[in-house]
Amino acid sequence: MDPSMGRSNDSNSLLSRSASRRLREKEQRYNTILKAAETLFAQKGYHQTSIEEIADLAEVSTGSVYFYFKNKEDLLITLMQEIGHQLRKLLGDELKKADFSFDSFKNIAFAFLREFCGNHPEWIAIFFRESAGQSLEVEEQRRQLFSKLTDDIKEAFVKISREQGIGPVDDSCPELIAVSILGLYERIACHYFLWQDQPKDVEDIAQRSVSFMLGGINNLLKD
Amino acid sequence: MDPSMGRSNDSNSLLSRSASRRLREKEQRYNTILKAAETLFAQKGYHQTSIEEIADLAEVSTGSVYFYFKNKEDLLITLMQEIGHQLRKLLGDELKKADFSFDSFKNIAFAFLREFCGNHPEWIAIFFRESAGQSLEVEEQRRQLFSKLTDDIKEAFVKISREQGIGPVDDSCPELIAVSILGLYERIACHYFLWQDQPKDVEDIAQRSVSFMLGGINNLLKD
Amino acid sequence: MDPSMGRSNDSNSLLSRSASRRLREKEQRYNTILKAAETLFAQKGYHQTSIEEIADLAEVSTGSVYFYFKNKEDLLITLMQEIGHQLRKLLGDELKKADFSFDSFKNIAFAFLREFCGNHPEWIAIFFRESAGQSLEVEEQRRQLFSKLTDDIKEAFVKISREQGIGPVDDSCPELIAVSILGLYERIACHYFLWQDQPKDVEDIAQRSVSFMLGGINNLLKD
Amino acid sequence: MDPSMGRSNDSNSLLSRSASRRLREKEQRYNTILKAAETLFAQKGYHQTSIEEIADLAEVSTGSVYFYFKNKEDLLITLMQEIGHQLRKLLGDELKKADFSFDSFKNIAFAFLREFCGNHPEWIAIFFRESAGQSLEVEEQRRQLFSKLTDDIKEAFVKISREQGIGPVDDSCPELIAVSILGLYERIACHYFLWQDQPKDVEDIAQRSVSFMLGGINNLLKD
DNA sequence: CATGAATGAGTCTTCATTCAT
DNA sequence: CATGAATGAAGACTCATTCAT
Question: DSSP letters of chain C?
Answer without folding.
Answer: --S-TT-TTSTTSHHHHHHHHHHHHHHHHHHHHHHHHHHHHHHH-TTT--HHHHHHHHTS-HHHHHHHSSSHHHHHHHHHHHHHHHHHHHHHHHHHHS-SSTHHHHHHHHHIIIIIIHH-HHHHIIIIIITSSS-HHHHHHHHHHHHHHHHHHHHHHHHHHHHTTPPP--THHHHHHHHHHHHHHHHHHIIIIISSSS-S-HHHHHHHHHHHHHHHHHHHHH-
